[in-house]
Amino acid sequence: MSKNADDLAQLIRARAGDAPVRLGLILGSGLGHLAGAVDGVAIPYADLPGFPHASVSGHNPNLVIGTLEGVRVAVFGAREHYYEKGNPAAMRLPLEVLRALGAYSLIVTNAAGSLRPDIRPGDLMMLSDHINFSGLNPLIGEPTDARFVPMGDAHDPAIRTALAASASAVGVALPQGVYAWYSGPSFETPAEIRAIRTLGGDAVGMSTVPEVILARFLGLSVAAISTITNMAAGLSDEKISHEHTKAMAPLGAAKLERVLRHYLSNLR
């Protein structure tokens, strides 16, 4: 843990209280309304030295500390994507701060394109595993042997089981699948999508995998859920664009909020 993370954690406690955070939540495109559901304090990233200033429309760059369904959470309203500045470790400091605030688990959400005909726009998909299709890694340059992070259960089985039970309880379909990280910012070509399907990918997106790697490096248990905003390139006639992603994300976001609220209510 860096000294900077400890200093930021002290700054955050001074504004949001000393109670330890139990869980972190990173919000994907179009999911910012979840931060507004938290009873707590919103701290702009601009007030947190060293925090990445995400510049993607559809994201709200605030850290919200408070309670949701009675659980103390830290909600990251935006993430810096690799394609913004070419830094796969951009979210390292925020996740170090999350650990310094006391959290031991993290749920990551994202918007993704589906490669499966049974998972359509507006649906959710929980990540059972991932493929680092980009080949990049946020731990490159880490000088300690801690960089050799085992990834066999990167997506925590216990959290996934609990999320699946919550989805069933609230009547939301939550199939599991493999997510492939594509660096972006251009969308994938049909040939790249065919390659990802051959490799075993079920959905594709431009985030999440760096945070999962960093979370495991920091000792956080992690799970991730995609909101499906489109079928991947070559699998439908729809026109893929960021505006389309922002327009479609709320369809799955309402389902995701129900699942997360039920999950949190059972953590108390």
From TrEMBL:
Coiled coil: none
EC number(s) per entry: 2.4.2.1
GO molecular function: purine-nucleoside phosphorylase activity
GO cellular component term, pick one: cytoplasm
Keyword Glycosyltransferase: yes
Binding site for phosphate: S29, H59, R79, E80, H81, A111, S207
Pathway: Purine metabolism; purine nucleoside salvage
Listed GO biological process terms: nucleoside metabolic process
InterPro entries with a match to the protein in the record: Nucleoside_phosphorylase_d, Nucleoside_phosphorylase_sf, PUNP, Purine_phosphorylase
Domain Nucleoside phosphorylase: 23-264
Record: residues binding a purine D-ribonucleoside: E188, N230
Key word Transferase present: yes
Keywords per UniProt: Glycosyltransferase, Transferase
Quaternary structure annotation from Swiss-Prot or TrEMBL: Homotrimer.
Function: The purine nucleoside phosphorylases catalyze the phosphorolytic breakdown of the N-glycosidic bond in the beta-(deoxy)ribonucleoside molecules, with the formation of the corresponding free purine bases and pentose-1-phosphate.
Protein family: Belongs to the PNP/MTAP phosphorylase family.
Protein name: Purine nucleoside phosphorylase
Lineage of source species: Bacteria, Pseudomonadati, Pseudomonadota, Alphaproteobacteria, Rhodobacterales
